[in-house]
Each structure stands twice: as structure tokens, then as C-alpha cells.
Design a protein that fits this description.
The complex is a heterodimer of chains A (337) and B (90). By secondary structure, chain A is of the alpha/beta class. Chain A has two domains: 164 residues, Elastase, domain 1, CATH 3.10.170.10; 153 residues, Neutral Protease, domain 2, CATH 1.10.390. Chain A contains eleven helices and seven strands. A five-stranded mixed sheet of chain A has the order 2-1-3-5-4, with helices on one face. In chain A, helix 2 runs antiparallel to helix 3. Chain A is globular and about 55 Å long. Chain A starts with a helix and ends in a 7-residue tail after the last helix. The relative contact order of chain A is 0.09. Chain B has one domain. Chain B contains two helices and four strands, in the order E-E-H-E-E-H. Chain B has a four-stranded antiparallel sheet, covered by helices on one side. In chain B, strand 3 and strand 4 form a beta hairpin. Chain B is globular. The mean pLDDT of chain B is 91. The chains are: A alpha/beta (337), B alpha+beta (90). The interface between A and B is medium-sized, with 31 and 21 residues. The structure holds zinc ion. Zinc ion sits at the interface of chains A and B.
């Protein structure tokens, strides 16, 4: 057993090793310590220490007015009536849909499981071709109108960004190399799960594309990524779908948006066999036991442990372990025994 | 000054590469040398996801200066330089 007082004096690399061996208490301490350190730096900057209380998970939509700034002008907040701004209303509705999905499916209290407000900034910058999560809030660019549309136009993009928040608070996967690719993977997984729910699609008829609604006709491709066929969604898509082609360069924080193609394909293969709901439950419960430096093998190892427990408890398809093993084997990953 | 700027990351991870020559004044040279010699990475936001990554290499008067930034660490001098280069290439 690892009580909090003991964990706090144990060096992080030992905590990580203990977490890796299934010690959830050490994992929690490790994640808390990292978060506290980050928070402390911010707090010291502000010369103010505040107790973190459970929030109400309220939505706030700000307009950046095409400046490279956040929270410029508040245009809609929780319980406000619709405003005269289509994008603001769409983001309000979609972020609510995502939050409700996590609440109704996993009983998650907002994106941090502690009632954190869901803050979105729209119209960030000029022709800004991006959307990001910064640890506290979401920010969306309008796109250049040539190759990209407004990044708020797609439920999978909104869910992807909100999932980065969930990952930060549940596993704190560091944003580089394989842990970073897992961070991206979980965002694509729940981006696509929420998209299929939102569009009332079935796994067999879904397109499994990410970001298909934010690209224009002039964009050289149909989407940003494909979970069904990584590497095929556009002319720039360099995602591998097998460990043989793992990217080992330094671009993109050592390939976080590139190597996520490998577990993405495994998720697709699993969901085809056991369904999107069982897959989502297994992946979500697995995220809760992962840690900052977890890699692809750690993901598989824990998916198998979690799916075994869930199938023993009759909460997911009895074939889950077998299906996940086979799906990961097809992308070149096998459990290390 | 010769430049090589490689931008990766972002939600779409569509990479941009700029390479070429740009005439800049002495003050701008000194400012760029300063931010590349002492990149301020203290305020790096480790929770930032889907942000752009800027890999910047400059050859100023025969000496190479380089650093990697993301959107939480990129100094205004580099933002202005990228803007200037993007404008000149479009
Ligand atoms: Zn992402």
C-alpha cells in the first residue's frame, strides 16, 4: 500500500514504476504532484493561493474578436438564451452534448470530474487554422476559408479538445512521444465515439473520419485523420497503422498526431467486433489507470486487464480480451509477459 | 540573414517549412539573437495540446542560432518574423 504521505517523498521515477505495476494510489499521487506543481507555479505568479472547490461545470463562450487573445468578450454563458451568433450557439450546444455524454455514460462531473467550467473561445486570431486545449480552456480558430472552415463546425473536433481536458485530469499523459500519441489517441477515440452518438451512426456505417467537416472542397483530402485507414485521409496524412512504421523523428512533439494512428486503428478494429459502447467503456476505464509516461505496450496491457475485469463482471462482451488482443496484434503490438 | 523555420503540430499537423534569405536591420538581428540564445522556456505550458511547434534556425552573419518553441513559449520577435516571412511568400 502506498499512502499519500509516503508517496510524496518518493522520487517521481519510482512512483511511475509503482503506478506501472498497478498501484493506483501512487499513480494518483504522481498525477496530483505534477498538477500541484504546475498550479503552484501559476499561483506563485499570481501571489494568490486558492482552494480548489467543486464547480458547477458551467459553459462560457467568449469571442476573441480575431485577436490572439482569450476571454476577450463573453457572449453566452450557462442558462443564457440563444444569442445572435450562430457559432457561439453551436459551440454552446456541442460542448453541452459532450459534457452530457461523459456525465450520462461514465458519471463524470464535467471535464475534470470536479465540476470544472467549460470555457470556449471562438474566432481566435486571423485565419487561424487550429483548435487547442491549454490546460484551462478551449480555443478555436475560424480557419482560413481556403482549405479550412471554422474549427467549431464539427462535433468530433469539439469532443477531441474536451477529451484533452479529461485526459489531463485522469491520466496526465505527457505530450510527447508515445505518451503524447496516447493523449491524441484518447481524444480521437472519444471524438469519434461522441460523433457517432451525435449523428446516431452505427460502427459499420460510420466514416471513422476525424475533422471531415472542417475542411473545404479545396483541401487535398476528405478529412484530417482516418481511424479506419490511418494515412489515407489527405495528401499530408502520414499516420502509420502498424508499429513497423512507427515515426521516430522530432516533429510534432515526437509524432503525437502521427503515431496515434496505430492505437486508433486498433480501436476501430475492436469497436467493429464488440461495439462502440463496450469499447468506449473499456478505453475510458483504462485511461483512469494510465499514468504520465505510459506507452503503447502499457495501453495494451491495461486494456486487457480492464476488459478482463469488465467481462468477468458481465459489463462488456465476453470476447473483449480476445478481440482487443487480435486488434492490437494486427497493428504490431502484443502483450509483454 | 538566412532562415529555416519548420512548423509542425496543431490539430491537423500539416507541416509548413520556410527557407530563404531576409534582409533585416541591426536592431532586429540583435533581438532575434537574444531570444534564440536565451529562449524563455520557464513559462512553458505543459498542458497545452494541439498547439503549433516552431523549430527555428537562423544564420545571422555566419553564426547559427536555433531554438524550438510552442505557442506558450514563442517570443513576439519570432511571431513577427514568421508573419513577415509568410506575407512575403504569399
Ligand atoms: Zn489533440
Amino acid at each position: 500500500m502506498c499512502i499519500k504521505a509516503q508517496c510524496s517523498i518518493i522520487p517521481p521515477h519510482i512512483l511511475e514504476e509503482l503506478a506501472k505495476r498497478g498501484n493506483t494510489s501512487c499513480k494518483k499521487t504522481l498525477n496530483d504532484a505534477q498538477r500541484i506543481l504546475l498550479k503552484r507555479n501559476t499561483v506563485l505568479n499570481n501571489l494568490l493561493i486558492q482552494e480548489e472547490k467543486a464547480g458547477k461545470g458551467e459553459r462560457y463562450i467568449y469571442d476573441s474578436l480575431n485577436l490572439y487573445k482569450q476571454r476577450v468578450e463573453l457572449i453566452r454563458k450557462e442558462n443564457d438564451d440563444e444569442v445572435d451568433d450562430v457559432i457561439a450557439n453551436e459551440v454552446y450546444d456541442m460542448s453541452g452534448y459532450v459534457k452530457d455524454y461523459f456525465k450520462n455514460t461514465f458519471n463524470l462531473n464535467s471535464i475534470d470530474d470536479n465540476g470544472m467550467d467549460v470555457i470556449s473561445n471562438i474566432r481566435y486570431g486571423k485565419n487561424y487554422n487550429n483548435a487547442f486545449w491549454d490546460g484551462d480552456e478551449m480555443t478555436y480558430g475560424e480557419g482560413d476559408g481556403i482549405q479550412f472552415k471554422d474549427f467549431t463546425k464539427a462535433i468530433d473536433v469539439v469532443a477531441h479538445e474536451l477529451m484533452h481536458a479529461v485526459t489531463q485530469f485522469l491520466a496526465n499523459l505527457e505530450y510527447k512521444s508515445q505518451p503524447g500519441a496516447l493523449n491524441e489517441h484518447f481524444s480521437d477515440v472519444f471524438g469519434t465515439v461522441v460523433k457517432q452518438k451525435y449523428l446516431k451512426q452505427d460502427v459499420t456505417c460510420a466514416d471513422w473520419l476525424i475533422g471531415d467537416l472542417i475542411v473545404t472542397d479545396k483541401f487535398p483530402g476528405k478529412a484530417i485523420r482516418s481511424m479506419k485507414a490511418p494515412g489515407t485521409s489527405n495528401d499530408f496524412d502520414n499516420q502509420p497503422d502498424h508499429m513497423d512504421n512507427l515515426y521516430t523523428g522530432t516533429d510534432d512533439n515526437e509524432g503525437v498526431h502521427i503515431n496515434s494512428g496505430i492505437p486508433n486503428k486498433a480501436f476501430y478494429l475492436s469497436a467493429l467486433e464488440i461495439g462502440i459502447d463496450d469499447s468506449a467503456l473499456i478505453w475510458f476505464e483504462t485511461l483512469k489507470v494510465l499514468w504520465r509516461t505510459a506507452n503503447f505496450n502499457d495501453l495494451l496491457d491495461n486494456l486487457l486487464k480492464v476488459s478482463k475485469k469488465l467481462s468477468d463482471d458481465k459489463k462488456v462482451n465476453i470476447k473483449s480480451v480476445e478481440v482487443i488482443t487480435k486488434s492490437f496484434s494486427e497493428v504490431g503490438l502484443a502483450q509483454i509477459v | 540573414m538566412f532562415y529555416n523555420i519548420h512548423i509542425s503540430g496543431g490539430f491537423a499537423n500539416i507541416q509548413r517549412e520556410y527557407e530563404g534569405k531576409l534582409d533585416i536591420d541591426i536592431q532586429q538581428k540583435e533581438n532575434l539573437k537574444k531570444v534564440l540564445n536565451n529562449p524563455n522556456l520557464v513559462n512553458e505550458n505543459k498542458n497545452l495540446t494541439d498547439a503549433f511547434v516552431y523549430d527555428v534556425k537562423l544564420n545571422i552573419d555566419g553564426k547559427i542560432y536555433g531554438a524550438t518553441f510552442n505557442e506558450s513559449t514563442i517570443p513576439q520577435e519570432i511571431v513577427n518574423l514568421v508573419d513577415e516571412i509568410e506575407k512575403s511568400t504569399t
